[in-house]
Design brief:
The protein is an alpha+beta fold. The protein is built from 16 helices and 18 strands.
């Protein structure tokens, strides 16, 4: 085949020097073909089109001016066709694989796998011998992506997310995509189009969301590590309820290139594992500047050898126990917190109660941000324009077409967010969102001021243990309530961008257990959330490592 007649289309791979190359749009290389079979990228506007837009926007264009504006607009539209002559950036797919498959139910007891696919990385590296699950909002080339929603059925990414490539380059072996909640919009684990994800500690209970499958797979021992995403707690919530270690890194530390987010100012990807050392290793691999493909990143941040800096010595470490984060906790969670605080102080840590009133006032901020989520996820087809970053054009195109033809397939929560976002836009414009963004800097300072006095802040990750999975039939109001009820201690740090980690600090009976049968009740994990200053992941991981050590010692002495 002559190169000049080649068409490279999105969602297809072509061999180039024995390397798979991904392309995100048609690229025609023969100028003669373009001239003889010219199809504009956007069809020309008509007078009726512009008249309608003018009336809707109340531009006050006189009738005799319409042809002038039509000439200008269509001139610009024709200029857009020059985009065909400029080659877009493509991302090489470096490691061979075959398309993934949905495992049989018997091989997927917690419904935690969205797709199984084995991709072998390098023979050596920091993650050599480690198995990894990738949350199903992250691109794995050639493997279907569902993002937990029917709206994404039929979409297959053509390139790997940056975190996927880095894991493979570090010797990790990817075993598949983990189930996530519908468009990542739930702190519970019942909203995925494939059905509820079950908590390995008690299959009648929620695994937490939205990285539900990642946490369940780690907790069940099916993988060593997993990638999660976190916009309101979605790494920490399931890690807490499943008893794992989960880290939401500092905002921008880990690139989100090649993933579906919710809103650029709160999107995070991060590591999940059964222990702090593996979380540190995975962070060490996935963190760092992505060559300008993620506009939120600081190019001057140096990534330490996190896994080599773990000492776990809590002597002299000052911890602020946030009153507003624990005062509404259940007795069982408060008891677990008291026990771990005693262990930490016995090891030389200094723990003092502190008050940050703004911590309890984040609800309105996060609620108003839903309007920004709507703009990013729905209006802008999952990736808002105007940023210097790598755009996932095939994903944008898929969502635009799918939402136009079957918006009814989105979850009740997404429907409610769409109604709220559109209504607020029409009534308020973006002023409330603007005020909220201004308040976020005030919130950030409130935490920073306290972190000037303490090495870290601590609180329960969730003030209660894993809830029962809800009934199959819910009203829209009940559905929405069940998705957003457990984020009070986690979402503030998505708004502020601080690194926050959860680690299991014990297991307690659930509050709904029969008081006459507490000895027989399944005890459920309790997570301790630790928060440090921006880019202080070394300190954060070391404190968590110290907690892990004293918990292990405590369990040995009790046995």
């Amino acid at each position: 085949m002559h190169a000049s007649n080649t068409i490279i289309e999105g969602n297809k791979f072509v061999s180039s020097d024995n390397q798979l190359v991904a392309a995100r749009r048609p690229v025609r290389c023969d100028m003669a073909d373009q001239v003889t079979s010219y199809i504009p990228l956007v069809e020309p506007a008509s007078l009726e089109d512009l008249s309608q837009i003018s009336n809707e926007l109340k531009l006050g264009i006189a009738e005799h001016e319409n042809k002038d504006y039509l000439e200008v607009v269509n001139g610009w539209l024709k200029s857009c066709d020059g985009l065909r002559l400029i080659e877009e950036e493509t991302v090489p797919v470096l490691y061979p694989r075959i398309p993934g498959v949905k495992p049989a139910r018997k091989d997927n007891p917690h419904n935690a796998w969205a797709t199984k696919v084995t991709i072998k990385g390098e023979d050596s590296g920091l993650l050599a011998g480690k198995t990894v699950a990738i949350k199903d909002n992250v691109f794995v080339a050639g493997t279907p992506l569902t993002n937990g929603s029917k709206i994404w059925e039929g979409y297959t990414p053509e390139f790997d997310g940056t975190v996927v490539t880095r894991i493979l380059q570090a010797g990790g072996t990817i075993l598949g995509k983990s189930t996530c909640e519908s468009q990542c919009f739930s702190g519970n684990s019942f909203t995925s189009a494939s059905g509820p994800v079950l908590n390995p500690a008690d299959r009648t209970r929620s695994a937490g969301g939205s990285s539900s499958g990642s946490a369940a797979l780690v907790a069940a021992g099916e993988v060593d590590m997993a990638i999660g995403g976190d916009q309101g707690g979605s790494i920490r919530l399931p890690s807490s309820w499943c008893g794992c270690v989960g880290l939401k890194p500092t905002f921008g530390l880990v690139p989100v290139t090649g993933s579906l987010g919710m809103e650029p100012s709160v999107d995070h990807l991060g590591p999940m594992a059964s222990n702090v050392t593996d979380v540190a290793k995975l962070l060490e691999v996935i963190a760092g500047y992505d060559g300008g493909r993620d506009h939120r990143q600081n190019p001057h941040v140096t990534i330490p050898k996190y896994s080599q800096l773990l000492k776990g010595d809590l002597t002299g470490v000052k911890l602020g126990y946030v009153k507003e984060g624990y005062e509404h906790a259940t007795p069982g969670v408060k008891s677990a917190m008291a026990d771990v605080i005693t262990l930490m102080t016995n090891c030389g840590a200094v723990v003092e109660e502190v008050s940050i009133p703004l911590h309890l006032q984040c609800g309105p901020l996060f609620t108003i941000m839903l309007a920004s989520f709507y703009r990013s996820m729905i209006e802008c087809n999952v990736q808002p324009p105007g940023y210097n970053e790598l755009y996932c054009v095939s994903a944008m195109q898929h969502f635009k077409q799918a939402f136009k033809s079957r918006a009814h397939d989105v979850s009740p929560t997404i429907k409610a967010v769409s109604l709220f976002g559109e209504y607020l836009k029409r009534k308020d414009g973006s002023m409330l969102v603007g005020r909220t963004m201004n308040c976020r800097s005030v919130l950030r300072r409130a935490y920073n001021d306290m972190l000037e006095k303490y090495d870290a802040l601590i609180m329960p990750t969730i003030p209660f243990v894993a809830a029962k999975l809800p009934a199959a039939e819910l009203t829209p109001a009940e559905f929405v309530k069940q998705t957003l009820f457990n984020t009070g201690n986690t979402s503030p740090f998505n708004l502020s961008g601080h690194p926050a980690l959860t680690i299991n600090v014990g297991n307690v009976p659930p509050e709904d257990a029969d008081p006459m049968k507490l000895d027989d009740a399944t005890k459920l994990p309790v997570g301790l959330q630790i928060v440090c200053k921006h880019y202080e992941e070394v300190k954060l991981l070391d404190i968590a490592f110290g907690v892990e050590k004293i918990m292990a010692q405590g369990s040995k002495s009790s046995s």
